[in-house]
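stuck on this:

***
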Amino acid sequence: MNLASAVDLGPVLVDPVLWAAIALGVGLFLFYRGFGLLRRRRLILNTPRSTVRGAALGTVEVSGKAAGPYTLISPLSALNCYYYRARAWQNQQRR
């Protein structure tokens, strides 16, 4: 016997109360998520801009042009740079 033929989901899928509950749940989730996105946006917009010499402690947007006596060639992108960092890791599960 097939399970789909034994259970009729037609009346459940057209029930407006079910869809209203789903819409309410999704709406509340998006409403609370919007507060987090707003907080992040305000943090980015209110970050002060400074040079490296005048930078204060805390979150600061640094502006200027990097300069140095020599450059390195990064091994991953093969571009000139002043500093690079590469990390490799492997997730090992215990058996």
